[in-house]
Amino acid sequence: MKYIKFFLVGILFGIVMSKAEIISWYRIYEMFKFQSFHMYGIIGSAIVLGMISMFLFKKKMVKTFKGDDIHVMPKKEGLSRNLLGGILFGLGWALAGACPGPMFVLIGKGVVSILVVIFGATLGAFFYGLFKDKLPN
Amino acid sequence: MDFIMQPWEWYVAGPVISFVMFLLYYFGERFGVSSNLETFCSIGGAGKFVNYFKIDWRENLWNLIFIAGSIAGGFIASNYLTTTDAVAINPQTVKDLADIGIMNAGQTYLPDEIFSIDTMLTLKGFAILIIAGFLVGFGARWAGGCTSGHAIVGLSNLELASLIAVIGFFIGGLIMTWLILPLIF
């Protein structure tokens, strides 16, 4: 039963991604062409409000529903890792027109071919695990 | 109900996404979609080949449930909360896409030149889908996050690592959009 809340939050996420057309390939292309404010407004406003959430978590003004402190795990530092990994991700994001969240939402929309993209993404994650010790950090 | 049925503006969507992130932390977890790809590897037995994937994937079950919910959300939105599949993109974007061989942009939700079943069943079409996915999966895990974990959580948390990653996302995205896509179609 404790998982139902995550399913419900996921439904909200899937609906907003669909309704704001974030899962449309065209919106991503348009963003990288700088021809619309839409995606920048979405990501920007999410971040600005996110900063408020982070502030409330750090000041312990908001705790988990169980009353525990909320710690946000910092991302791994490393110029090569973040920049080179980021560039590969960006190439794929602009080609697929979808990052991992939208890929799943598109299944719900009935887009069969997105399963091939998700398979590719899983393969990519596997190959990262295979070669991670040989990659620069 | 009109408000729901229309496409949602950025100033509705951004706050809702931020609220999703807030709820996941409030429920004691975190916001990051691409780590599910590693969980898939673990479930598929990748731990037999690579120690990195030897994890107890049940610890990430909540995140799998979250993406299952997002699939349901996509189904609900497209079947019950939407009147048209058209996407009102910039007319200039439509023109630019026609110039590189992607026709009727915005009249459907996704371009047939990439996502139709017919395209998927060609060698080139299949390769594009696999390669795009591979880059997303490999890149996201190398960078340690995707748009959710780095762009939204990381930047909200004022992390330098995430700023570098997001700059990388844009370098890659701009190269693909401006230089590579025109050569593909």
Give your account of this protein's structure.
- The complex is a heterodimer of chains A (137) and B (185).
- By secondary structure, chain A is mostly helical.
- Chain A is 66% helix and 0% strand.
- Chain A has helices at residues 4-19, 25-32, 38-58, 79-96, 100-108, 114-131.
- The model of chain A has no long low-confidence stretch (mean pLDDT 97).
- Chain B has helices at 2-5, 10-26, 35-43, 61-80, 91-99, 112-115, 117-120, 123-143, 147-156, 160-184.
- Chain B is globular, with a radius of gyration of 19 Å.
- The chains are: A mainly alpha (137), B mainly alpha (185).
- Chains A and B meet through α1, α2, α3, α4 and α5 of A and α2, α3, α4, α5 and α7 of B.
Question: Which SSEs are present, and which pair or pack?
Answer:
The complex is a heterodimer of chains A (137) and B (185).
Chain A: H1 4-19, H2 25-32, H3 38-58, H4 79-96, H5 100-108, H6 114-131
Helix pairs in contact in A: 1-5, 2-4, 5-6
Chain B: H1 2-5, H2 10-26, H3 35-43, H4 61-80, H5 91-99, H6 112-115, H7 117-120, H8 123-143, H9 147-156, H10 160-184
List keywords for this structure.
heterodimer; A: 137 residues; mainly alpha; B: 185 residues; 10 helices
Name the structural class of chain A. Answer: mainly alpha
**Assembly context of the chains:** heterodimer
Largest protein interface, residues of each chain: A-B, 113 and 128 residues
| Order of helical and strand elements of chain B | HHHHHHHHHH
Number of strands of chain A: 0
* pLDDT < 50 stretches of chain B: none
The separation of the N and C termini of chain A measures 40 Å
The helix/strand order of chain A is: HHHHHH
The description of the largest β-sheet of chain B is: none
Helix content of chain B: 55-70%
Q: Report the sheet with the most strands of chain A, covering strand number, pairing sense and barrel closure.
A: none
Helix/strand-derived class of chain B? mainly alpha
Level of helix content of chain A?
55-70%
Q: List the total number of helices of chain B.
A: 10
Strand content of chain B: under 5%
Report the principal-axis shape of chain A.
Answer: globular
The averaged pLDDT of chain B comes out at: 96
